Amino acid sequence: MEEQMTVTTLEQKLRPFEDPVNHPLAKWLYLHFPPRPLTNKKMYDRYYEAVKILMRELEAGDMSATVETVIQEYIKSVTPFLEKYEKKIFPLKSASPEEVLSFLMEQNELSQYDLASDLGGQPVVSDILNGKRKLTREHIERLSKRFGITPATFFPAD
Q1: CA–CA distance, 134 with 98 (Å, rounded to integer)
Q2: Separation between Cα atoms, residue 6 and residue 152, nearest integer Å
Q3: Residue at a domain's end among 58, 89, 120
Q4: Domain count of the chain?
């Protein structure tokens, strides 16, 4: 009874400030994936996958402006919690030029053969990725142009 009294009292106090969620998708998202601190990997994975699905739907663009707005607002409300968990669990360290190149290849779904003409052949790409060879100034210029990034990306921050 005491808990019910507290909930009722709080509802009465907060009612003047409420902003009702009227869209069915918004209600569903906030009920099943409420924006809140993420406390474990399983929870992070669920929210991360949900946001990925929503992002793909936004990219497809087959929805009304209202649904698009609901999804964008939801993503904005959840993203800070995802970012905070990622910073806690996956702290950033300085990446080597080889790690940067490997990451860019992965993100752009490129193979060593795709970069062969930029770097002087597939064996050169392999040697660079395996740390047997360093990126040259020319390599960095070509890669920066190809990926649309600053050459400084390939220099370690240490």
Answers
A1: 8
A2: 57
A3: 89
A4: 2
CB–CB of 33/81 below 8 Å? no
Q: Tell me if 47 sits within 8 A of 60, measured CB to CB.
A: no
Q: What angle do CA 138, 129, 156 make, to 5 degrees?
A: 65
Report the C-alpha gap between 139 and 36 in whole angstroms: 44
Q: Which structure tokens are listed for 47?
A: 């929210």
Regarding whether 135 and 84 lie in a shared domain, the answer is: no
- Inside any domain, residue 72: yes
What was the pLDDT predicted at 4? Answer: 67
| pLDDT tens per residue across span 75-108 | 999 999 999 998 888 776 778 899 999 999 998 8
Q: How many residues does the chain have?
A: 158
Query: Among 55, 58, 51, which Cα is nearest to 80's?
Result: 51
Task: Report how far apart, in Å, the C-alpha atoms of 24 and of each of 10, 32, 58, 59 are.
Answer: 25, 12, 17, 21
Q: In this structure, are 67 and 123 located in the same domain?
A: no
Question: Which amino acid appears at position 70 of this protein?
Answer: V
CATH number of the structural domain spanning residue 127: 1.10.260.40
Its domain, for residue 68, covers 16-89
pLDDT, residue 121, reads 93
